[in-house]
Amino acid sequence: MNTEALRTLAVAGQRRRLAVLGAGSWGTTFAKVLAEGGNDVVLWARRPELAREISETKRNSDYLRGINLPISLVADSSVERVLDGAEQVYLSVPSQSLREVLAQVRDLIPADVPVVSLMKGVEKGTALRMSEVICQELGLDSGRIAVASGPNLALEIAKRQPTAAVVASESAQTAAEVASAATNPYFRCFVNSDVIGTEFGGVLKNLIAVAIGIVDGVGYGENTKASIITRGLAEMTEFAVAFGGRPETLAGLAGLGDLIATCGSPLSRNNTAGRLLGQGYALADVVRQMNQVAEGLASVAPVLELAEAKGVTMPIVSQVQQVLSGTLAPRDLAPHLTDTDEPQGE
């Protein structure tokens, strides 16, 4: 998408002051999406030197090497200044750090503004979805909370390669406001009201992507991977529906769309982590090699706890857990394994 088209959009649209907390690859990319949708965006970076680099050189060399950032995107290491006057707040921090960050900003978020989760994880210990942590920690009405998900590989989007996402909220107005702010010539947002299905789609596809990475690292071919993706989608759907999600959500951008992108790309952190496991690296070594958090690794245990509570069987995810714990050899992970040898319906 050419620069002139983006400039025209910014002039024609309604400019908003938006805050994004988290300057990793996805937080920075989404801030770029928002800025190129005609908004003034302030990005919170914990490290002052990273904030200066983003503001002064319009680069984030740690996480988006070679990508030029918009003039209307600035960064600050002061979360107070970032949130001052924000009309929407976007959260893109590691899922296991979310509660700590929310405790820090609870009294700084302007009243009545939408708070948007860009994260795809489940909190350890509580097994809460990110929107549930936000609601609990900030004491917000659920209608103020939205979640954004879909096939969102950061580097591709940062390069303005066209894609779509979905924004979910119990409030149609909140979903529409967020989707409007996050839409530009190369990034289109759809909306739905299925927060549960949308969030679990983003969480569960990470687990299947780890499985795909494992078998890829082992050297298995396309039949194995296609089988895991297909049976993995069935596991994802059964799980989400058991918790109140809608099956059509898992067949959409937040489910199948995200699953295809994450399982098929070396840009996926979860796929990369799985591939290293499949090549024989120990979990501790994989974690040390990763520049950013692979959310799927942290979500396996809480997801299986939730599944057990609802009586949902997840053979593929269970095998991923066994590989992580060292009780299953990576080459023994297979989509046809179930709890029974009896023929089962698809």
UniProtKB/TrEMBL annotation:
Subcellular localization: Cytoplasm
EC nos: 1.1.1.94
Principal EC category: oxidoreductase
Pfam name, any one: NAD_Gly3P_dh_C
GO cellular component: cytosol
SUPFAM superfamilies linked to this entry: 6-phosphogluconate dehydrogenase C-terminal domain-like, NAD(P)-binding Rossmann-fold domains
Example GO BP: phospholipid biosynthetic process
Keyword Lipid metabolism applies: yes
Main localization category: cytoplasm
Residues at the active site: 205 (proton acceptor)
Binding positions (NADPH): 25-26, 46-47, 63, 120, 154, 269, 293, 295
PROSITE patterns xref list: NAD_G3PDH (PS00957)
Keywords: Cytoplasm, Lipid biosynthesis, Lipid metabolism, NAD, NADP, Nucleotide-binding, Oxidoreductase, Phospholipid biosynthesis, Phospholipid metabolism
Residues that hold sn-glycerol 3-phosphate according to the record: 120, 150, 205, 258, 268-270
Residue sites binding substrate per the record: 120, 269-270
Keyword Disulfide bond: no
Sequence ranges assigned to domain Glycerol-3-phosphate dehydrogenase NAD-dependent C-terminal in this UniProt record: 194-333
Annotated ranges, domain Glycerol-3-phosphate dehydrogenase NAD-dependent N-terminal: 18-174
Gene3D superfamilies according to UniProt: N-(1-d-carboxylethyl)-l-norvaline Dehydrogenase, domain 2, NAD(P)-binding Rossmann-like Domain
GO function terms (MF aspect): glycerol-3-phosphate dehydrogenase [NAD(P)+] activity; NAD binding
PANTHER family: GLYCEROL-3-PHOSPHATE DEHYDROGENASE (PTHR11728), GLYCEROL-3-PHOSPHATE DEHYDROGENASE [NAD(+)] 2, CHLOROPLASTIC (PTHR11728:SF1)
Family as reported in the entry's similarity comment: Belongs to the NAD-dependent glycerol-3-phosphate dehydrogenase family.
Protein purpose: Catalyzes the reduction of the glycolytic intermediate dihydroxyacetone phosphate (DHAP) to sn-glycerol 3-phosphate (G3P), the key precursor for phospholipid synthesis.
Protein name: Glycerol-3-phosphate dehydrogenase [NAD(P)+]
Gene behind this protein: gpsA
